[in-house]
Amino acid sequence: MNKFWIVTNQIYRKNLKSGSWLSLVLLPLILLALVIGIVWYTNQHNEPAQVAVVTDNPAIAQVLKKANDADVHYQYLTAGQAEKKLKNEKITGVLTIKTQPTISAKYVELANAETNVDLSKLRSTLTGLKVNQTAAQLKLTSAQLQALTTPAQVQKKTISFEKGKQVAKSNATSVINYTFATALTIFIMLIVTIYGQMLAQEIATEKGSRIMEILLSSVSATTQFFAKLTAILLLLITQLAIYVIAGALSWGWLKQQAFVKNFLPSIDFSVLWSATSVISVLFFIIGTMTFAVLAALLGSVVANQEQVNTAVMPISLLAMAGYLLSFMAQTGDSTLIKVFSYIPFINIELMPVRLALQHTTLAAACVSLAIAIVFLLGFTFLTVNVYRTNVLVYSEAGILKAIRQSFRIWQAERKR
């Protein structure tokens, strides 16, 4: 056990100080900080558009001035005043409104205006004025006008069937669960690809430099195998811990910002501790370990460091397949999607999304998770034996042939 932790500590500390791992950890934080900084700066320096209103009916100008908000400010000016201010770039644009025979408008805006006017809001306000004008011409009462303009009410209810019974589901819960599962899918794809290549590179480097021959004289291949897996998982845990600490430290400031406050009331954070979220995290843990074992297998069959990129190609392809299928699941729950959600490697990305979309049940997700766990145990057992028999084999025959050769050697040793 002491040798196990010595190897684990050595690999962990070596990669912890490497520029590639530091870049992997810091780059997302830097990019996220830049995005948040840009959004914050934009909100701090976002001046409302100044729009001059030119009309023959001052009452309309007063109605528009009451509609001032953080995006646009209206000011009542004559045509001459508006043209002069527009020429001197003191205003963003000029809104000319005619009231006869009905309300119509024309908006002229500077090409280099810092803030553009949302015409949909402007159109909505003018439409309301036009409706009032038409109602007055038709001599409609306020009650009649309200009855005419009140939109039809459409209520949405999200349900699912559990044990044959209809159960109501929260729309907000579904959206957050789906967002969480989708983000986790992308994260899984990136993590398994990067850490898989890191582990395969570690093993291939030792083989290519013949250091492995020296190591095996004092530490068994099995101990080295699990020590390498443990070191890579500790690196992943360290990365996640850094993100959690960074998120906790920045949250106190973020939740006070206006661009975050607007969304907080609509978010129910309790859904992050729902069964869907817990299952998704378990899929992430099992999936990461499964891909790490695959990376160790592929790294052990290469003859030198130059073959690593070719060897880890299956990791990238499997991760991308699960990623693409998870997006296909958004458009429908076809038979293909259902079948692949139980297949190891693919199910760790696909099943959490199906569960979040309520295309499957919690029981089905647990079955898929159980399949993933059983496969991980069996796959680890096979990989350890291939690793042990192949770690000192330097074959130039290719990855698939090297794997088949390793299985034959292992089977021959079992028959002895």
Automatic annotation (TrEMBL):
The chain crosses the membrane at residues 21-41, 178-204, 225-251, 271-298, 310-329, 362-384. GO terms for cellular component: plasma membrane. It comes from Liquorilactobacillus ghanensis DSM 18630. Keywords: Cell membrane, Membrane, Transmembrane, Transmembrane helix. Residues 21-381 form the ABC-2 type transporter transmembrane domain. Coiled coil: none annotated. It is a multi-pass membrane protein. Its main location: membrane. GO terms for molecular function: ABC-type transporter activity. This is Na ABC transporter permease. It is found in: Cell membrane. Pfam families: ABC2_membrane_3. It comes from the Bacteria. InterPro entries: ABC-2_transporter_component, ABC2_TM.
